[in-house]
Design a protein that fits this description.
Blueprint: E1 6-10, H1 14-25, E2 29-33, E3 45-48, H2 50-57, H3 62-66, E4 74-78, E5 84-89, H4 90-97, E6 102-105, H5 106-114, E7 122-123, E8 128-132, E9 140-144, E10 147-151, E11 153-156, H6 163-168, E12 176-187, E13 197-200, E14 204-210, E15 216-223, H7 234-242, H8 249-255, E16 262-268, E17 277-278, E18 281-283, H9 286-289, H10 298-311, H11 316-341, H12 346-362, H13 366-369, H14 372-375
Parallel strand pairs: 1-2, 1-11, 2-7, 4-13, 11-18
Antiparallel strand pairs: 3-6, 4-5, 8-9, 9-10, 12-15, 12-16, 13-14, 14-15, 17-18
Length: 394
């Protein structure tokens, strides 16, 4: 039997673990190197749209994750006083895109992905650097504290501050500040009943969504200078900025503790990379195309990247050709949406809100149409990495 090819994945996040699982289904021997001491992610929840759920079907995980869908009934966009600007339903989303939106904790997804790998495939507390990208005539080399690893393929899944990206494209300017900071928390909120929603204010947004395990996922964003932090704690900062907004925002903040709140400035890649590969190395996820979270597509696009990379593992230029145009378009759309929902001019906000309300009544599915080219994506069908097919692949 021919010896299996070896892949080294630098980064044990969602994209890296999906790539590892997808490559294993193609017969690769895979080692994942994660610099953190455990795979527990720093973060809160993640929304998975039908596009990434179809990608997870490739590794046999799609239906398991679909079972975690929690959204039901109406949801939509509101004003800080609670007026609905637009509404949609989980059924409408599923009907239009052929599957549900699923919201789950990142730790749950990470655990499910890791379960698709042998226990010795993932090495934590294992910082790694790219020593040589390799080429057609020689393997790539990855340097670790325990020595160098040679690989037929290296996957750079090391996030927004990717050292692999810088090693491949040192002249690229990297990421830029998106102009706003974000807060996230996942907590129990006893007795709080509400419809899933995102609320747009003046230079601020808030979102509240139920999880299937009974907890609530909340996030917020505000236009601020980069590098700012609350003088006391971030829960207090949220109270100052959002404490007088509509229900359930006050109830969520009342249930939160300072240590429940995560805050980070948002950065994105404004100038697309010239390619997502060089030599025997491929980039994916935030390392390749970091984008604002305003479409909820960062993790979704990383999952897409992973299964497409497994499909094109023998032809990295084809991987770049398949992923660079799509992710560039999605990232640019995310930037445009950020400008819309974080507007700060009163006149512009009034026009925006009036237009949204009027259009929502005239064409209720208008805002879903904006996701047609995103949520409708399907993996390369002729050569699924797993050969498994589910209802989500139809």
């Amino acid at each position: 039997m021919a010896e299996s090819r070896r892949a080294v994945v630098i980064g044990g996040g969602i994209g890296g673990l999906t790539a590892a699982a997808a490559l294993r289904t193609r017969g690769w021997q895979v080692t994942v190197l994660e610099r953190a001491r455990s795979l527990e992610p720093v973060g809160a929840a993640i929304s998975l749209a039908p596009n990434s759920l179809r990608a997870l079907d490739v590794i046999g995980l799609g239906d398991e994750i679909r079972d975690l869908a929690a959204w039901a009934g109406d949801g939509g966009v509101r004003t800080p006083r609670g007026r609905w600007l637009s509404r949609s339903s989980a059924d409408a989303v599923a009907e239009r895109f052929g599957g549900p939106l699923v919201l789950l904790h990142r730790a749950t997804l990470i655990a499910s992905l890791a379960s698709r790998l042998p226990s010795d495939a993932v090495r934590t507390d294992a910082a790694a650097t790219l020593a040589d990208p390799g080429d057609a005539g020689r393997p790539a080399r990855v340097r670790t504290a325990d020595g160098e690893l040679e690989a037929d393929l290296v996957v750079g899944a090391d996030g927004i501050r990717s050292a692999v990206r810088h090693a491949l494209f040192p002249a690229h300017p990297g990421t830029v500040y998106s102009g706003f900071t974000a807060w996230r928390l996942v907590i129990p909120v006893p007795g709080a009943e509400f419809a899933s929603h995102e609320t747009w204010g003046r230079g601020r947004i808030w979102g509240t969504h139920p999880l299937k395990d009974g907890r609530v996922y909340a996030y917020a964003a505000a236009v601020t200078p980069a590098g700012e932090h609350a003088p006391d704690d971030e829960r207090a900062e949220l109270l100052r900025r959002f404490g007088d907004w509509h229900h359930p925002v006050p109830a969520v903040l009342a249930a939160a503790r300072p240590e429940d709140v995560l805050r980070h400035d948002v950065h994105h890649i404004a100038h697309p990379l010239p390619a997502f590969h060089r030599g025997r190395v491929a980039l994916l996820g935030d390392a390749a195309h970091a984008m604002p979270p305003t479409l909820g597509q960062g993790g979704n696009q990383a999952i897409e990247d992973a299964v497409v990379l497994a499909h094109h593992c023998d032809d990295l230029p084809a991987y770049t050709a398949a992923r660079l145009p799509r992710t560039t378009a999605v990232a640019r759309q995310a930037v445009r949406v950020a400008r819309l929902n974080l507007m700060s001019g009163r006149v512009g906000i009034a026009v925006r809100d009036s237009a949204m309300a009027a259009l929502s009544k005239a064409a209720p599915d208008l805002f879903l149409r904006g996701f047609d080219g995103i949520a409708g994506w399907r993996p390369p069908r002729p050569h699924y990495a797993s050969g498994q097919a589910t209802a989500g692949n139809r």
